[in-house]
Structure formats: structure tokens, C-alpha cells
Write a structure and sequence with these properties.
By secondary structure, the chain is α/β, with parallel strands linked by helices. It is built from 12 helices and 7 strands. It has one domain.
């Protein structure tokens, strides 16, 4: 959408906002730099980077309040579970709303006057039209131009390819528990340093987040990043799930692309039942 706006296909936006969780793949930060330099800046569109801090650092800091990630839990009786997902709201939605209030001139706790709002363009394609929702506050109104244009994800990929951006990575935390096997394989096989990072983090959160443990809210079980509920470096990530086979069978996705399909968006996080189903028969 940034490129469409810069080219004049969509109205020129006043700002582009990127919510940084502090734990994105290096490829995402490199791509953002390139977009800002080659597309946004020439079109006069400021790219604003906002953040609530580093989700990785906060999870391991016993002195910091932590908005929990949706970790997979193996309870003491052997039954599976999941912790609540609060991370999208804390590290994506919250800093964006804060910045929008600032841009409107009514920072919290000031009341935003009725009738004062921003129109926010959300990049949801027709493949996921069911994720298109209205904003939950009156000072933001969501628009979904890709749906209005009838664009599918394949249309977006073709357009990006025409601009030399075929290698656009998917934005999501390195250690997001909603990664599919293909994404875990992609990290392991393409970035050894980032793989070592997520393996280390997975081991560090086995007893839950550090703040909860420090305050006596000890996890009655064990926490894991992978839905198999075994340590990440032992998890069966080479197993091709039914969802991956279906994506490959549709002819629009190849093995390399599988590793960057799922991810996290402030307004359309793929952390729902369909995103966590796999051949283990486990769902959130």
C-alpha cells in the first residue's frame, strides 16, 4: 500500500507507521530501510517507527511488566494448554494508537473531540476479507483498499515483483509461537544466528515469563514456542503440515515462500484457530 500510495494509485498518505516489537528478523529491518529510502522518501511520505519496547527483553526481565505471548503449555498432568495472547495489543496496537493521538494533537489522557479522526489504510487482501474490521475507537476509521480493488495476495506479490520487491519479508517476531513449521525451518536454514537466538529464548521461557515467576505466579507446567511442546531445537519442524501441503498444492506458493506467509499485523494477527492447527491436532 505504501508503494501504491507513492505511485498515486491510492491517495497519498500523510504517514506510514511501523510498530516495532524490538524482535523482528534482520531482513524486516533491512527491508523497512529500503522502503523508506527508495519509495517513501521520494514520495514525501514520512515513515514513523513506534515501539513499546522489546518483547524479548521484557519477557526475560523479572522487573518489567510483560504482556504475555501465546506460549504452548504442557501442564503437570500432561494436558496441553496456551497462555493468553496480549502481545499484539501491547507491542503493535498500543504504540500505533499513541502515535495517532499525538499526530491529532490529543495525547492521552486528553479526550479526542467527536468528529476528529484519522483514516487508516489496512493491508488486508481479499484472501482474508474476514479479518477486515472497524476500529475500536472513534478517532480511527479503518479502510481496506486492497479489498476494494479486488486484490488477492497473489496480485500483491505480482505488484511487488514488478517493483523489484519480490523478496519482501513477512513482519513477525522471530520467536512468535504462531510460526508454522515452514517459518521455523526458514529461520534455521537461512539465519543461524537468529535460530540460535530463538532456541535460547525458548529454553529461557520454559517456566513462563520472568516477571510472573518473580512475583510468585509460577507456571504449573512448562512453556514452549513450538506447538509440539518440546524444546525448539528438538521440535519436528521438518514435518510438512497439512496446511503447508495445501498451500503448495494451490500452485501459488512454493517451498521457499512458505517460510514467510504467516505473520503478525496490528489489525489482523493470524493468531487464531486456523493459524495454529496442524497435524498434531492441537488448536488454540
Amino acid at each position: 500500500m505504501l508503494a501504491l500510495s507513492a505511485e498515486g494509485v491510492l491517495p497519498k498518505v500523510d504517514y506510514a507507521i511501523f510498530a516495532d516489537t524490538g524482535w523482528e528478523p534482520k531482513s524486516v529491518y533491512d527491508h523497512l530501510d529500503r522502503l523508506e529510502r527508495e519509495i517513501a522518501a521520494p514520495a514525501g511520505i514520512p515513515v514513523l517507527r513506534v515501539s513499546s519496547g522489546s518483547i524479548r527483553v521484557d519477557a526475560l526481565d523479572p522487573h518489567h511488566r510483560f504482556a504475555s505471548m501465546p506460549l504452548y503449555i504442557l501442564n503437570q498432568d500432561g494436558r496441553p494448554g496456551m497462555t493468553r495472547r496480549q502481545c499484539t495489543g501491547e507491542y503493535k496496537v498500543k504504540p500505533i494508537k499513541k502515535k495517532i493521538r499525538d499526530l491529532l494533537g490529543f495525547p492521552y489522557p486528553a479526550r479526542v473531540p467527536k468528529g476528529t479522526f484519522v483514516e487508516q489504510l489496512i493491508g488486508i487482501s481479499t484472501d482474508e476479507f474476514h479479518r477486515a474490521k472497524d476500529a475500536d475507537v472513534q478517532y480511527m476509521r479503518n479502510a481496506h483498499p486492497l479489498i476494494d480493488m479486488g486484490w488477492t495476495r497473489s496480485d500483491c506479490v505480482r505488484y511487488l515483483t514488478s517493483l523489484g520487491l519480490a523478496d519482501t519479508p513477512k513482519s513477525s517476531c522471530l520467536g512468535c509461537p504462531f510460526h508454522g513449521n515452514a517459518q521455523w525451518r526458514h529461520i534455521r536454514d537461512t539465519s543461524p544466528a537468529e535460530w540460535a537466538d530463538v532456541v535460547e529464548f525458548d529454553a529461557a521461557i520454559r517456566k513462563g515469563n520472568a516477571r510472573a515467576n518473580a512475583t510468585g505466579n509460577v507456571l504449573l507446567g512448562e512453556a514452549f514456542l513450538h506447538r509440539s511442546r518440546v524444546p525448539l531445537d528438538e521440535a519436528p519442524i521438518d514435518h510438512v503440515t497439512a496446511a503447508e501441503r495445501a498451500a503448495l498444492a494451490d500452485g501459488n506458493t512454493d517451498e521457499a515462500e512458505l517460510g514467510v506467509v504467516n505473520g503478525c499485523s496490528p489489525w489482523a494477527c493470524r493468531g487464531d484457530v486456523e493459524a495454529v492447527q496442524d497435524d498434531f491436532g492441537l488448536t488454540a
